[in-house]
Amino acid sequence: MAKIVAGISTSHVPAVGHAVDSGRTQDDYWKPMFAGYEFSKQWVKDNPADVDIIVYNDHASYFGMDIMPTFAMGIAEKYEICDEGYGPRPVPVVEGHPELATHLAASLILDDFDMTVLNRLEVDHGLTVPMSLMYGQPEKWPTKVIPLPVNVVMNPQPSGERCLALGKAIRDAVQQFDGDLTVRIWGTGGMSHQIQGARAGLINTPWDTKFLDDLINDPETLKYKPHLEYMIEAGSEGVELIMWLIMRGALGDKVNEVYRFYHVPASNTAVGHLILTPQD
Amino acid sequence: MKPNFEQYKDIPGTTIYTIELARQGFQLNEFCMSLRTEENRKRFHADERAYLDEWDMSEDQKQAVLTRDFQKMLDLGGNVYFLSKIFAAEGMSYVQAVSTMTDMNVEQYQAMMVAGGRNIEGWRSKKERGEA
Ligand SMILES: [Fe+2]
Questions:
Q1: Which domain holds residue B108?
Q2: Which end of chain A is more exposed for a tag (fewer CB within 10 A), N or C?
Q3: Of A60, A202, A205, which is closest to B81 when you measure between CB atoms?
């Protein structure tokens, strides 16, 4: 049986990737933010897993508007890195886990989640920046990855209720896999930020804090939080936080809060980060 | 469920990229996507007008690109993640590009972010601000 052993959530700010790639993580501006991830880098070393399911969104890097899947899953052997307008990030290719991924995609479709199946995918900062934060700059990433892109760019995005339910279905599907694997699930993006219009730069720390508390202790209350509230209170791009609900749904009713970090700013964004473990 | 796009229009200084706007901005965003290769970035920078004329964009959309009027591009169906290909290709950061849509210069904007970001008080509703 495969088992979900931890949930990791983190913002995925592109400028954080630039700071890593250009060796500026110890600059005055970046130092306090990267210091907040030191615990986590050690923790993932001490608590290794075989596979990371990474819930993220593509930022007009691979999909564009030709095809805009609401929920998709990568089932490929490997994922190359996107050119987002300034050349691909110098990070290792991301290796997939086709056996678990095909099982998951099939299970989810049978459970009425109409996943788009991706045999080809290039991944952008939404997926690679969290990996850099947790794993640093290795020659080769330490885990296999199953990318789970979610549309959070074009409104309507999937509802919070649907995201939480998808997480629960992922938990069941992982447990039904015939093979011994330890699996982590990651929710990425957020927290409050707005990167467009006259209201750009919005940060709402009290709202973010309440979201973190509710996500950990009372996730069912987030089910009916309307997207309008995310957009007003956490900024137009704060709606990315619905991806954290997928992570949380996959962890079961009760979780242990292993670690929490919050920092403002990284570029235009409030950085939030959690490590959670399921209680059963 | 019937979509309610109207509800997003009361958020001040914010353009929500809806499926309707996405339709309107499709060619503009497609042009942006084309800048994901070095070859196309070079061609665009060599003759912006000629490159834009290869796309079935409105004249307003082309003018907004030529003048780097990002707010205008948003209004005409562009989305910031797509538009980022334009400014990234010029070595511009999100902070630099985003600040041009506010009433601040980039130094003031950066100072606001370092001080904790824009406070939401007064920024929840156009009606509240007397803008609608
Ligand atoms: Fe994002």
A1: 102-132
A2: C
A3: A60
Residue B96 lies in a domain: no
Say how many Å lie between the CA of residue A126 and the centre of ligand 1.
6
Is the previous residue joined to A265 through a cis bond, with omega within 30 degrees of 0? yes
Which two tokens mark B22? 């996405």
Residue A251: band (very low, low, confident or very high) from pLDDT cuts 50, 70, 90? very high
C-beta atoms surrounding B44 within 10 Å: 20
pTM of the complete model: 0.98
Q: Are A167 and A247 in contact (CB under 8 A)?
A: yes
Those residues with Cβ within 8 angstroms of residue A69's Cβ, 6 or more apart along the chain or in another chain: A63, A116, A149, A151
Give per-residue pLDDT as tens, B38-65: 999 999 999 999 999 999 999 999 999 9
Per the CB < 8 Å rule, is B19 touching A59? no
Q: What's the domain count of chain B?
A: 2
Query: In the beta sheet, which residues pair with residue A51?
Result: A144, A183
What is the 8-class DSSP label of residue A93?
P
The residues with which A186 forms a beta bridge, in sequence order, are A8, A54
pLDDT category at A68 given cuts 50, 70, 90 is very high
Q: Which of B4, B16, B100 is the best mutation test for A, with the most CBs of A within 10 A? A: B16
Check A193, A227, A263, A273 and give the catalytic one.
A193
Among B79, B101, B120, the residue with its CB nearest the CB of A198 is B101
Using a CB–CB cutoff of 8 Å, tell me whether A28 touches chain B.
Answer: no
B64 in the same domain as B107: no
Give the three-state DSSP class for A206: helix
Q: Does residue A193 have an active-site annotation?
A: yes
State yes or no: is A227 an active-site residue.
Answer: no
- Measured between CA atoms, the residue of chain A closest to residue B17 is A154
Q: What is the ipTM of this complex?
A: 0.96
Q: Work out the pLDDT band at A40, boundaries 50, 70, 90.
A: very high
Q: Tell whether B114 is covered by a domain.
A: yes
B64 occurs within a structural domain: yes
Phi and psi torsions of A279, nearest 5°: -85, -20
% of chain A exceeding 90 in pLDDT: 98
Domain membership of residue B5 (yes or no) is no
Confidence band for B132, pLDDT divided at 50, 70 and 90: confident
- How far apart, in whole angstroms, are the C-alpha atoms of residue A273 and residue A268? 16
